[in-house]
Design brief:
Blueprint: H1 2-15, E1 35-37, H2 39-47, H3 51-64, E2 70-76, E3 80-85, H4 87-98, H5 102-108, E4 119-123, H6 135-153, E5 157-162, H7 169-180, H8 192-212, H9 214-229, H10 233-257, E6 263-264, H11 267-282, E7 288-290, E8 293-296, E9 306-309, H12 317-331, E10 335-343, H13 347-360, H14 362-367, E11 368-373, E12 376-377, H15 393-407, H16 415-435, E13 443-444, H17 447-450, H18 458-478, H19 503-508, H20 511-521, H21 525-544, H22 555-575
Parallel strand pairs: 4-5, 4-10, 5-6, 10-11, 12-13
Antiparallel strand pairs: 1-3, 2-3, 7-8, 8-9
Length: about 575
Amino acid sequence: MKEHIADRLGVILKELGVEAQVKLDYPENPEHGDFSTNIALAYAKKMGMSPRALAENIVDEFKKNIPESVASVDIAGAGFINFKIKEEVFAKEIVSIASAGAGKIAHNYGKLAVNSGKKILVEYTDPNTFKTFHIGHLMANAIGESISRLVEYSGASVVRICYPSDIGLHIAKSIWALEKHKDEMPPDSAPIQDRTAFLGKMYVEGTRLYESDPAAKDDIDALNKVIYERSNPAINALYEKGRRWSLDHFEMLYAILGTHFDEYIYESEMAPVGLEVVKAYLAKGVFEESEGAIVFKGEQYGLHTRVFINSHGLPTYEAKEVGLNMTKFKKYPDTEQSIIVTANEQNAYFKVLIQAISMINAEQGAKTRHIGHGMLRFSSGKMSSRTGNVISAESLLADIKELVRNKIAERKFTPAEAEEISNDIAVGAIKYTILRSSIGGDVIFDSAASISFEGDSGPYLQYSAVRATSILAKAKQEGIFENADISVAGTGGAILLPEKVSLLEKLITRFPDVIERAQHEYAPQHVANYLITLAGAFNSFYASQVIVDKNNNFSAYYVALTKVFVATMTNGLWVLGIRVPKKM
């Protein structure tokens, strides 16, 4: 119905001499209508008319052939045009969705086909071996996973890529300290958390001495080259052990967070690739020699200079990124777009990198997009893995999970149920807090508010879905809706439609539009904010209406509405990477 109205307005504008693609918005106040457009304000000057006069002309023409679904058209203010849709249109749409079958309800409502046939790569999380998987990685994971799911919901084929850092100076710092504390090293049988915590402790010590002791700095710089060249068997053994511990721990965390990567490309593998590409394009003038190093001078593009091969002849992170980009497009030559999600502290870095890539391969550069996100902050301020002040993702998850356990302690759950429920709620609480705000801004995390079952929180959304699901279970026992005639005629054995619908029906029909906008802007917050409004509308409906009642002629419709609400909420939460618990 929205597209029909927009198309009709486009035809009217064309007849008035204006070529335009009309966009309809949703009025902030539902009393103003179901759809609104500002086309009269946008094109009045071009037409040599006042916005109000142009709006009146448009409405007059629209009413000559008004769509059957439209109840009324009005002009508001200086020239906004508002449309009200007939109540039965929303009611019929709800029953139509509810009657589409379990597969469509569970998986397809809200899905689009705008990117059908396209392949999009999304790289995110990118943790560092030998270092703690901290809350910054947790933030990148939540955002990257949600963007991946938004892209999937737009019809594209998504390849999730992780680029773990498994080579570089940070590892040399860790292994240098590790050699001095080999006797304290945990055995392979120790819990994975203990083993990786020890690696993190070594990194902190190595970093401290690298910055304070010139002799240690020289040793670590030399060790970095040894690790890169793999020239010392004893060092290689320490490296392989620490690397495997880190990667195993990462996998355990991904399982908890609900992420599965399709492709792992390791930094160590990209070093020779990047080295070769940078050297080849040095001769072609993309890079320049400077004080024994090879650099890209970005000043001529309004950027800054960065080193791609250092004075020791080793590829820097920048060169490895060039290798990574080449490798991605070689593995997936049909890629439509390659998205990279990192902290926005790297925004300036990626501008230089993408400029360099564009000069190596213009098509690949044009298809590469960096999305920078803010930081997850607490009252103590910004974390730092360099100083050992790091807040691990695992410790945050454990703290929130413990708060949830205490909150549900009096409920009659088995130990296994309590474990699963508290995990799902904790992950949902953290992810929602991250995703409800614009990606580029910092997020202040409030532990108590994050686990509230009421208001602006992930658990509130989960609870709303669980509550509605329990209503459907009761309706199934009563044989309501499942045994009804699913036609919408409103007569005989068919589902009887109410004369008036609530805000809930209208919000549900907006879900595909919300998904499309969020995907187009790579902005999961649109979904998160929509779901909060949707949950509020359902809970208001639930508070004012008995849903399961065999003596109420509209009960089958109310059950259908609840069924579609559950589908919409479940699918929306899936897009955010949040699971709906079986119980709460």
